[in-house]
UniProtKB/TrEMBL annotation:
InterPro entries: Ntn_hydrolases_N, Proteasome_alpha, Proteasome_sua/b
Domain of life: Eukaryota
GO terms under biological process: proteasome-mediated ubiquitin-dependent protein catabolic process
Protein name: Uncharacterized protein
Length: 207
């Protein structure tokens, strides 16, 4: 049985400095996960993604093992997660989950932020800003796109996420939000602790 994606949400933004993914936390569901040091993903539409994520982490680890410790890039991680989800479904044609995968790619010694969306049919594409789920998410997506610019700073992206959450009538607090940040500066992803998230939220402008 899958959870209702319209009752949950995920928001992702890519900028020059990195990638931010925010998602809702409930008592029974964590939705934002680290795959490797440079990779994170959020999944809604499936009740228990732990087996999929464990296999994706194994694939990422194996990739490092056979590629001189070079991490798996974001698109390869997207393909891995998508294939695992498809295999987990009986017909293998769709999987019903919505997924955001973000992280930092390394190419020729340079680092690049990257964000992808996998839709419930199994199709995927690279995105710069995305809202999935939550009542009114289509309007929220339109507002996010209208305010998006590749020149946004990481701090401005955080502001945009909070504004989008408020549009979706979500309470914004460290207790019900997960926030993951992938930084171009060091090539690493980190899912913020409640304390770190509280500090981030306390420094955002009040409306």
């Amino acid at each position: 049985m899958t959870e209702d994606i319209f009752g949950s949400f995920m928001i992702g933004i890519q900028c020059e400095e990195g990638v931010i993914i925010a998602t809702e936390v409930s008592k029974d569901h964590q939705r934002l996960f680290e795959i490797d040091d440079n990779l994170m993903c959020s999944i809604i539409g499936t009740n228990d993604p732990r087996d999929i994520l464990d296999k994706a982490r194994t694939e990422a680890l194996n990739h490092r093992g056979i590629n001189n410790k070079i991490p798996m890039n974001v698109e390869s991680c997207v393909k891995t997660i998508n294939n695992l989800l498809l295999k987990s479904n009986e017909d293998g044609l769709s999987h019903g989950a919505s997924v955001l995968v973000g992280g930092i790619d390394e190419q020729n010694g340079s680092l690049f932020p990257s964000l992808y969306y996998i839709d419930p049919s199994g199709a995927y594409n690279q995105v710069q800003s995305k809202v999935i789920g939550g009542k009114g998410y289509e309007g929220a997506q339109s507002i996010l796109q209208a305010n998006y610019s590749t020149k946004l700073s990481l701090k401005e992206c955080q502001d945009q996420i909070v504004s989008t959450l408020k549009y979706l009538n979500r309470e914004v607090s460290f207790s019900n939000i997960q926030l993951g940040i992938a930084l171009k500066s060091n090539g690493l992803c980190k899912i913020n602790s409640k304390l770190e998230l509280g500090n981030i939220l306390s420094n955002l402008p009040c409306e």
